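The following block was generated as part of the benchmark described in Methods. Ligand: T4K.
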Amino acid sequence: MDALFSRKQPDTDVKNKLEELALFGGPAAFTETLHVGRPNIGDRDRLLARINDMLDRRWLTNHGVYVAELEQRLAAYLGVKHCIAMCNGTVALEIAARALGLSDEVIVPAFTFVATAHALQWQEITPVFCDVDPRTHNLDPQRIEALITPRTSGIAAVHVWGQACDVDALTAIARRHNLRLMFDAAHAFGCSYGGRMIGNFGDAEVFSFHATKFFNTFEGGAVTTNDDALAAKIRLMHNFGFAGLDNVIYIGTNGKMSEVSAAMGLTGLESLEEFIAVNRRNYQHYHQQLADVPGVRLLRFDEQEHNNYQYIVAEIDAQTAGISRDDLVRLLHAEKVRVRRYFYPACHRMEPYRSYFPHAGLLLPVTEELVQRVMILPTGTAINPKEISRVCQIIAFAVEHGPDIRAALAAPGRSSP
Ligand code: T4K
């Protein structure tokens, strides 16, 4: 297997070499599956000590000391006034949207994880899908104003892959039209815009600390804001509206983070710089290894900003690469490299949106194109440079022999991906 991907093969050998690919019956390149979103885990002993302490104290949730400490540390790290820890990013989005008074229509990208749209639709707010910038994959500010109607109450932008949106342009549009602006910052913990940490922008920002995020609390999330009144409202809402013992003064739900999640978060924070350093090393390694592979473009992070480098985003131009993204995904999956096609399909092609707006795609040409091209590669502390080199060799080999692979896949008896 090693020989297969490490040097150029003469054309006469191609058929035999293709047969060594796992897709065509050879052994997989990896014995253990490489995953996108393998969780980073900090110092296990410190985590277990915190959990033991929590069990000894018998305080598992509801305003525990770990949640309070985590909120304080996160707010300090982000330089934001308020941080309210939540049970997950989706509920955090729902609560933030409700606290902001979003209603009727809200402009969102369709190129996002479906939770962004669902958090709105769950409260019967209509997500109005807007196209994205082909370079950054973020909401394209130039396309927003055409979608604003008298029913529009806000914009929910997403810092996709941890790259900040064009915050200034979005803020200007929101002010001009008197709209609320919130950011789904699920990918963007540890990232900055203009040197200021994400978490400070718009009316509120929402993080996800899901296991697959670079910083995790098993499940979890947070809303951050510099608005005192909004923060107070969100705090009430995430605890049934309780303003003290037996005193409910507002409609609310249960969005609280548990103590065990906060213990994981506090432990993860202690290793945050190490997680970023490993992700950055992996990101650079992928860039070096794939630099000369035609038709494979890796997204670049702005080195002037803070980045978490959690998503290694490859765009496959099937024409130039000679192999489609989907064939490449299929080939890599067979080799036990579980690359992902985030965000495929885009939200407007998932239910209920595809039934509600069957023609939405006509207004989303960039999104429609991106969902055919993007492939996310494994990174994080669970993968090492040697494994990354091997993944890249497989990709380079697939590109070098794209037409042969396509022909072999089209052979009778094989189904398309
Ligand atoms: N907004 C945006 C822009 C988001 O991306 C997300 C979540 C949200 C909002 C909502 O935040 P949360 O409510 O989730 O806090 C995953 C995650 O579940 C999801 O959190 C994330 N975005 C999304 C982009 O990815 P799936 O359906 O791809 O997850 P799954 O189970 O296929 O796992 C992904 C990979 O990670 C797998 O290959 C296996 C690996 N994995 C996963 C888990 C949970 C592990 O190795 N260990 C694990 O413990 O959605």
